[in-house]
Design brief:
Blueprint (H helix, E strand, L loop, with lengths): L9 H4 L2 H9 L1 H18 L8 E5 L5 H8 L3 E6 L2 H9 L5 E4 L13 E7 L17 H15 E11 L4 H13 L3 E7 L8 E8 L19 H17 L10 H13 L21
Parallel strand pairs: 1-2, 1-4, 2-3, 4-5
Antiparallel strand pairs: 5-7, 6-7
Helix pairs in contact: 3-4, 3-8, 6-7
């Protein structure tokens, strides 16, 4: 079976049915969560400090949920309207907007403390039309140039993606470097067919290319980085045991959600009261 990006443009492939099917797949949820945790490790944000992140190709908000749990504020963009509709139905915390990342971003310079992207970058490697501006090099150039401007100095951007060849990796990294990024490719479990994952870890400022690119995880190694990652894996498995997420809808969560709705201009948001978030007595 061919990769999704080879079948149709993302806004067409992820229609209403496919978007819900993708989001409700428990295997997809687990993989997305694990890769998001790993991307956050490579992002190497200061522990215990708030950060404002950009989730590139946020889809239905699966990676955004992990950002919420880790205490980060985030903005998500995606080209598929159906994916964003599912994200709104799931009431994700981040702000969402419809965006073709191949056209570049329009954020103010230095808006974000970092950026992550899960399973998205390979979609830019296919030309949808014969026009020169639709070619992968043009789209990648616009994307990386505007992203570099939107990130603070110093900061990082981490992309998990599925290249089909070494030539694609070379094309992406060379254009990112021309846009001003430092960094390189990180490959986890390179000798495993199933577990192998490719990450592009890019640096803005702070020495640029002089920064050391993180090492990929190895099956044989038992270093500290791998131990941290495995602890997160175990925590994720414990959370998903039984197939449901831990109930986090306490009073503080409800108040934050209502305030978010008010800021977005949603009508009919109930007023806060002493009964907000109060557990109802069982009815027999």
């Amino acid at each position: 079976m061919s990769r999704p990006e080879l079948q149709a443009p993302p806004e067409i492939y992820y229609g209403d049915i496919e978007a819900k099917k993708y989001t409700n797949n428990t295997r997809v949820q687990q993989i997305q969560a694990e890769m998001t945790y790993r991307a956050l490790e490579l992002l190497n944000l200061p522990p215990g400090e708030p950060a404002f992140l950009l989730d590139i190709g946020c889809g239905s908000g699966l990676s955004g949920e992990i950002l919420d749990e880790e205490g980060y504020h985030w903005v998500g963009c995606d080209i598929a309207p159906s994916m964003l509709e599912v994200a709104l139905e799931r009431e994700v915390e981040g702000d969402l907007f419809l965006q073709d990342i191949g056209q570049g971003f329009g954020f103010r310079p230095g808006s974000f403390d970092g950026a992550i992207s899960i399973s998205v970058l390979q979609w830019l490697l296919n030309a949808e039309t014969s026009h020169p501006t639709s070619s992968p090099p043009h789209r990648l150039t616009r994307f990386f140039t505007t992203l570099h401007a939107a990130l603070k100095n110093p900061s990082r951007a981490v992309f998990q993606f599925y290249p089909s060849s070494d030539d694609q990796i070379q094309l992406i990294t060379s254009i990112a470097q021309k846009a001003g990024f430092g960094g390189g490719v990180v490959v986890d479990y390179p000798n495993s067919k199933k577990a192998r994952k490719v990450f592009l870890c890019l640096f803005v400022g702070g020495g640029g290319g002089a920064q050391q690119v993180p090492k990929g995880l190895e099956v044989e190694e038992d270093n500290e980085e791998r131990a941290v990652f495995e602890k997160r894996r175990e925590r994720l498995r414990a959370r998903e045991k039984g197939g449901k997420r831990k109930n986090i809808k306490d009073k503080d969560w409800i108040l934050r959600k209502k305030e978010l709705y008010r800021q977005r201009g949603k009508e009919g948001v109930p007023n806060d009261s002493k009964y907000t978030g109060r557990k109802r007595k069982p009815v027999f």
